[in-house]
Write a structure and sequence with these properties.
The protein has four domains: about 20-175, Sandwich (Immunoglobulin-like); about 330-370, no CATH class; about 375-475; about 480-610, Heat Shock Protein 90 (2-Layer Sandwich), CATH 3.30.565. It contains 17 helices and 20 strands. Helix content is about 55%, strand content about 20%. It is of the alpha+beta class.
Length: about 600
């Protein structure tokens, strides 16, 4: 009996050891090793490596690829893993700790020696990767055991360990940083664009929105790990982390002023009083929490409360039929959705990064574009103010006809020059964004990222071409519809390079107040036909008809002869949501979609002046 027991023990020990060993060779490009590691939690954060090695029997096996412990300043997590080179060649791997804001990450070998210290407070100035990395070398058939300690008292403690081949990691890191650079470049240009509009229109809402974008850039620059490898040294990082509440609060505080002036919250006295109270208390609370350690883990609660309250104000303004609140609400929904996904990922409930790595950046860019569209509608307000001024001047013409005529012509000319210059600068700034996207997309090989950039590029081009036409023509009330539609279609055709025949029948000139919405709708519909209608045959016909009847009802028809789609299947893509919201809330019209021998979309709306 004893011999059998000894035999069983000797038989199962190698199997047990093998189960905890991670086998590698030169062909292993990438591998998550956390799910093959063992975990031990030092609940009082007091044990050193020598004591940890003595606690080997208390390490527990782990099967998760990612661990999240929330805000965890009082304990540290130890990860034990064994790597084995199964090949007859020496291999070098890069171990990446996939979280740039973890305060301290230390890798030890089995001899209790420190291999390397890294993390937010230990970043080497020579490091050019957003996440902490460690180089691992294994000789032929060598097996090594490592201990990694992770602790964080600044942000949530999230642990993910991936092992890469050197070349594979270099390509992945380059692609990641290029995409983040594109994001920061686009956001910076949008900020400058809104500053220019502020200087020309003197509308303070543009100024605060520009500050909001700058705040997002600063916050995200630190969140993704760019600041500690490209901008700040360790002393500066430790100093700035004491003011983390300020970094979080600044964009939300700027956004509050933007919402206050843009949605004119003074029209809602009760809500406006609460908002003013928030704006008074937020700086005081941030100052107190920054200079003390009181309620450190709740340092962002006031800013987040303001964020939620601003969302509520936008919903209320939408309920009150504020036309400009509809687009703002769409932007809010995008950001709130991304924030919820980030929160769930931080808690380890749902890891959205597996399906869409850059959802936060895409959400911020989309929100910024939508908010910019909302701000662009203020150009219509300038036009209306000009018309009102002209009417007043005409009424006064009876008493001072010649003087008033000269004054009207002067004001009109100055306003036209202002509008032309404004349209010119808006067009130039948007073309700068498009150029940045087009330039950087050349270095991206993955098609899905290229497709995302093409969609963003075409949406921005839709607005840019409208401003270009307004700049070049003398008529500031209407847009050359035929020319505008042709430019948009040529741009889309250039993006996809399909052999599609497009027939356009335009019988009227489009009013400027409808142009930007029609352009965005047409861009989404034609792009959808290019991508889905013809099953990659790169041939087909798209018919576009735009007219207005004697009752003042506009009709836009877009019909393709493609494969159609299943009308029983609901679609909630960003393009579909954007089209429906533009039709329902901006044009105040109706949309009818039919799928029979292709897809036929009929959009109708009434001219406001005909009501």
């Amino acid at each position: 009996m004893n011999l059998k027991l000894i035999f069983l023990i000797l038989f199962f020990i190698p199997i047990s050891i093998s189960a905890n060993t991670i086998n590698l060779d030169e062909t292993t490009n990438s591998k998550n090793i956390l799910n093959s590691s063992q975990i031990y939690i030092d609940k009082i954060n007091s044990l050193d490596i020598h004591e940890i090695i003595k606690q080997d029997d208390k390490f527990m096996p782990n099967t998760k690829e990612k661990l999240s412990y929330g805000y965890s300043p009082s304990f540290s997590v130890w990860i034990k893993f064994t790597l084995k080179n199964t090949s007859n060649k020496t291999i070098t791997k890069v171990l990446e700790y996939n979280s740039p804001l973890t305060t301290e990450v230390i890798l030890f070998n089995s001899s209790a020696s420190i291999i390397k210290k890294d993390g937010l407070f230990n970043t080497n100035q020579d490091r050019r990767t957003v996440n902490p990395i460690f180089e691992i070398e294994l000789t032929p058939f060598q097996s090594k055991t490592y201990y990694l300690k992770a602790s964080s008292y600044i942000t949530t403690l999230i642990i993910e360990l991936n092992l890469f081949n050197t070349n594979y990691f270099s390509k992945k890191e380059t692609r990641h940083q290029v995409i983040l650079s594109l994001f920061f470049g686009a956001m910076l240009v949008l900020s400058i664009y809104n500053l220019f509009i502020f200087f020309f229109t003197k509308d303070i809402s543009y100024f605060y929105y520009s500050l909001y974008i700058i705040g997002i850039i600063i916050h995200h620059f630190m969140y993704v790990g760019f600041s500690n490898i490209y901008l700040l040294d360790q002393t500066s990082i430790k100093f700035i982390t004491n003011y983390a509440a300020l970094i979080v609060s600044f964009p939300i505080y700027s956004l509050a002023f933007y919402i206050k002036f843009f949605l004119k919250t003074n029209l809602y006295p009760s809500l406006n009083k609460i908002l003013n109270l928030f704006l008074f208390l937020i700086p005081i609370s941030v100052l107190i929490l920054s200079i003390t350690d009181i309620f450190n883990q709740y340092r962002n609660i006031f800013a987040l409360s303001l964020f939620v309250y601003l969302f509520f104000i936008t919903i209320y303004a939408t309920y009150k039929k504020s036309k400009q609140a509809y687009l703002i609400l769409i932007g809010w929904l995008i950001i709130v959705t991304a924030s919820i996904l980030m929160f769930l990922s931080g808690l380890g409930i749902f890891d959205f990064t597996k399906n869409l790595s850059y959802i936060v950046e895409i959400a911020f860019i989309t929100e910024a574009i939508i908010f910019s569209i909302a701000l662009a509608t203020k150009i219509n307000k300038l036009q209306n103010e000009k018309n009102i001024a002209n009417e007043k001047l005409i009424l006064q013409q009876k008493n001072e006809k010649m003087t008033l005529k000269i004054e009207v012509e002067k004001k009109t000319f100055e306003l036209q020059i202002l509008l032309k210059e404004l349209n010119h600068r808006v067009k130039n700034n948007m073309q700068t964004i498009v150029s940045l996207i087009r330039l950087q997309s050349r270095s991206i090989k993955e098609q899905k990222y290229k497709d995302i950039l093409i969609v963003i590029q075409n949406r921005i081009n839709t607005m840019s071409h409208l401003h270009e036409l307004l700049y070049t023509q003398d008529d500031t009330l209407h847009v050359n519809t035929q020319e505008y539609f042709n430019i948009l279609i040529n741009e889309i055709n250039h993006s996809y390079k399909y052999d599609i025949k497009i027939n356009i029948v335009v019988t009227i000139q489009l009013k400027m107040e409808y142009a930007i919405y029609c352009g965005l709708i047409l861009n989404e519909l034609i792009s959808n036909s290019y991508k889905y209608a013809f099953n990659d045959k790169k041939e087909g016909i798209i018919n576009i008809i735009f007219s207005q009847n004697i009752d003042g009802i506009y009709t836009l028809i877009v019909k393709d002869n493609g494969v159609g789609y299943d009308q029983n299947k609901k679609t909630n893509t960003m393009g579909t949501i954007l089209i429906k919201n533009l039709v329902n809330y901006q044009l105040c019209g109706h949309i009818n979609i039919k799928s029979n021998d292709g897809v036929k979309v009929i959009i109708t709306w009434r001219d406001n002046e005909e009501i």
